[in-house]
Amino acid sequence: MKDFDGVRIGLFGITGSGKSSFINSVFMALHGEDEGPAVIQSTGAEGTIILEALPVTDGFTLLDTRGFGLLGGDAEKEILAILNGDIKDESGIDRDKTVKTSLTGVGTVLRDETHVVLWFVKANDPRLHKGAYRCHMDFLRQQLLRRGIAPITVITHHDKIAESQEEEVLAKASAATGSPRSFTFFVTNYHVDQEGDYRTHIEAMKVMRSALLVAERYVKIHKQQEQYKRESEAIGNQKVTGPNETVEDFFRRLSSKEHIPFDQIQPIIDKLKKEDITTSKSLSDNWVDIRGDKLMSDWLRGCIEKELADTFKEINL
Ligand SMILES: Nc1nc2c(ncn2[C@@H]2O[C@H](COP(=O)(O)OP(=O)(O)OP(=O)(O)O)[C@@H](O)[C@H]2O)c(=O)[nH]1
Ligand SMILES: [Mg+2]
C-alpha cells in the first residue's frame, strides 16, 4: 500500500507492567540480540519517559508508551491521542500541554493510527485483585470497542505467581481489559534475576502473531471503510438516502459515520434480508420488532435508532 508505512502496535499499561521489557524480549527473540533497545525501569529511575517508536522490521513498529500510576483524565487523553495518531513519536508528548485529539476517533488517518493495542497487566499487581483495575479500564474499553480495536492482553511477571493462581489472574485480567481469553497471554520477560530462555521467545512470538493478525484485520476493515466513503462521496447526491435506500447503503453510511467495523453489521443485514427487510424505510417500519435482536449491541442499537430518526425526520414532517 502506497499510503501505508506498516503496522503500528501500541503498548499500554500502568507503569512497571513490563512494556519495555516485552519489547526487548521481542527483539531478542527475533534478532538474537543480547539486549533490546527499550529503556527498562531500574531502581530509583523512571522507565520510559516519552513515547518511543521502535521499528522492528519494515513491516511493523512497536510503540512503547510511558505507563501511568493509574488511569485518569490526562492518561486517558494521551492514550486516545496515540490511538488516533495525533501523537506519533517522542516529539509529540509534552505533559505540561494539553493534547488536542478526537474523543470518538473521527477524522483520523489510518497510516498514523495505532492498529492494535497490547494492554499490559502485571500478574501480581494487587490492584488487579481488588477490582480497581477493571473500573479504571471502563472508559478505554468503550473507546477501543468504538474503534473496532480488539485489545490483546499481556500478563507479565508470570514467574511471580503460582500455577494455582493462573486461572484467577487470567479471568480478572481479561475482564478488566475486555480481551477474550484467546487474546490473553502470560509472559515472563527477561529481567535481572532471570535470563530469558526459549520459553520467553515462544511467549513473545505468540503475542506478536496475534497482534499482527488483529492489526491486519483492523487495517483491512478500515481500508474498506475509506473506500466506501470515497465511493459514496463520488456518487454524491445520486445516492438514494430516502425511503428507497437499501439496507446495505443505510448500514454502509452508518458504518463510515460511526466507525463500526462492517463485519459486525453484515450478519444483521443478512438476517434482515431473510425477513424481507431490504430498504431503510421497511427497517424503520419494522424497527419495534427488530430492535430486541441479540445480534446488536446496545451501542449499535442506539446508533441505528438515531440514524433512522435522522433519516426519516424530514419525510415525517
Ligand atoms: N520478574 C519479572 N520482572 C519483570 C518482568 N517484566 C518486567 N520485569 C521488571 O519489571 C520492571 C519494570 O519493567 P519495565 O519494562 O520497565 O516496565 P514498563 O511497563 O516499561 O514501565 P514504564 O516505562 O514506567 O511504563 C523492571 O525492573 C523489569 O526488569 C517479568 O515478566 N518478570
Ligand atoms: Mg517502559
UniProtKB/TrEMBL annotation:
Provide the protein name: Interferon-induced protein 44-like
**Which CDD domains does the annotation name?**
Ras_like_GTPase
